[in-house]
Amino acid sequence: MPELPEVETIVRGLRPTLPGKTIERLRILHADVLRQPRREFSARLKGRTFESVDRRGKNIVAHLTEGVVLVVNLGMTGRLVWARDETPTTHPAVRFTVNAGPALVYDDVRRFGRLEAMNETEWALRDRDLGPEPLSSTFTAQRLHEDLSRSVSPIRSWLLDQRRVAGVGNIYANEALHLAGIHPQRSCKSMTEGEARKLHRALRRTLSSAVENRGTTLKDYRDASGNPGDNASRLRVYGRGEEPCLRCSTRVCRLVFGNRSAFYCPSCQPFGSGVTA
Ligand SMILES: [Zn+2]
User: Fold this and answer.
1) At residue 168, does pLDDT exceed 60?
2) Among 43, 91, 156, 165, who pairs with 184 as Cys (CB 3.0-4.6 Å)?
3) What separation in Å is there between the alpha carbon of 230 and the centre of ligand 1?
4) How far is the CA of 107 from the centre of ligand 1 (A)?
């Protein structure tokens, strides 16, 4: 599932090519990926010109003329790619024909992704519900510690909640917790100030190095040009159940809770680590 680094990579790929393009035609092949009626979606976007493209959490946020905002959440298997000859678009759901160059295609095998055309006010309300950006300067270790102290959730579940921190999903939550030496089931409230500081640093390191490596491709993720990312080989625990921990050689454990797999090293991430009385 694309998380912050994958979405950031797509956005960086679209930034030099998308602004200035005008949507001339839309072809909606699967309306179930739209969050609104297809007519409304088309009417809001047709004839508008892309002005900028950004990322917020796991969302691609494109601003168009006349205050229109196109928000794309890739779900599990979504891709937003230029339909060049060499680009694999196997399950196109929405095709945007623009005034110059190839079409922009939203492709999604499983169709858990969602697209919505909003106005600036509607987007501002949605944006407000999302937590801080973990790579921004407003996300500080102190703020993280304060936010954690108000929750009794297991830390891994808390990290996946987009209202708490925006953009973190299961891969990078597991990776950051391993780097910080924190067990995924530890309660947020039990986190010491020192642990929150370690987690803060680990989240930023994990996410920014994944951005540098252009994201993690396990199966479906592709950037805007259709290329896979290079980060999969750098994963330390995610998807490595039963394999030796890269730090201490203890076997990595897999545990399912909150309907998602957690991967951790029982030596590097003991359950009782740092719990204060
Ligand atoms: Zn270990």
Assistant:
1) yes
2) 156
3) 23
4) 38
CA of 34 to the centre of ligand 1 (A): 43
Active site residue 189: no
- Asked if 266 and 244 touch (Cβ cutoff 8 Å), the reply is no
Is 22's pLDDT higher than 90?
yes
**Distance (Å) from CA 178 to ligand 1 centroid:** 8
Determine if the pTM surpasses 0.90. yes
What is the domain-level CATH number for residue 45? 3.20.190.10
Which of the pair, 85 or 173, is modelled with greater confidence?
173
Structural domain ending residue among the three candidates 93, 128, 163: 128
271 belongs to a structural domain: no
Residue 21 a catalytic site member: no
